[in-house]
């Protein structure tokens, strides 16, 4: 899914939100007076606990929802990847990825060789090239998530907006997706915005982090400042510590658990 761009006043920003508010029910805001910027060619993580409004904020950024108040500006074409992709027909994996090329193909046109090549290249980048002829319905949740990522990549969007892109993936594929996001920014110059409730993922790849705590409580800043162990601990209501692993400082919860 993609959205037409709205010009951004400051050309160093890919996304700008100005005083944005949204409610599903009148009088019960999910997002209230939120302002943030996503710099071009960088990774912004939306970090927060379940139910804090991350998905709603992400949909506002992507254009899947329209704000009731305020303005969302985008510098280019957005590729939006929902957490769960549901289809009403037994499409092949290749057909699903080709849907991301709808803008290039046209409404009633047949995909060209170039479109198919772009789709296959995208599948290859997420390790799913060998699944091209499989039915999307037959895939596991994690495999569907990877196909949805490939669909956004095939669209040649300039901004990728990903809703918890690692939520259904095993550890190996989580690492692969995080590395893939870094490569898209470093090698292709894309901007990536993703939501997560895993502080370790934000810590691993994000340049900027937005801490999403509920209506009216979205704090944005450089990852090094926002991912302080005490700050993250208060956000999630658990004790967080930084542990040295080889050359890395890793955020991890201090669980109050006992074996047996």
Molecular structure report:
- It is a single chain.
- This protein is of the alpha/beta class.
- About 30% of the residues lie in helices and about 30% in strands.
- The chain has a single domain (about 15-225), classed as P-loop containing nucleotide triphosphate hydrolases (Rossmann fold), CATH 3.40.50.300.
- Helix 6 (about 170-190) links the parallel strand 7 (about 160-165) and strand 8.
- Helix 4 (about 115-125) crosses helix 5 (about 140-155).
- The chain is globular.
- Belongs to the ABC transporter superfamily.
- InterPro entries: AAA+_ATPase, ABC_transporter-like_ATP-bd, ABC_transporter-like_CS, Metal_Ion_Import_ABC, P-loop_NTPase.
At a glance:
Pfam families: ABC_tran (PF00005). By secondary structure, this protein is α/β, with parallel strands linked by helices. The chain has helices at about 55-60, 95-100, 100-105, 115-125, 140-155, 170-190, 200-205, 225, 230-235; strands at about 1-5, 15-25, 30-40, 45, 70-75, 80, 160-165, 190-195, 210, 220, 240-245, 250-255.
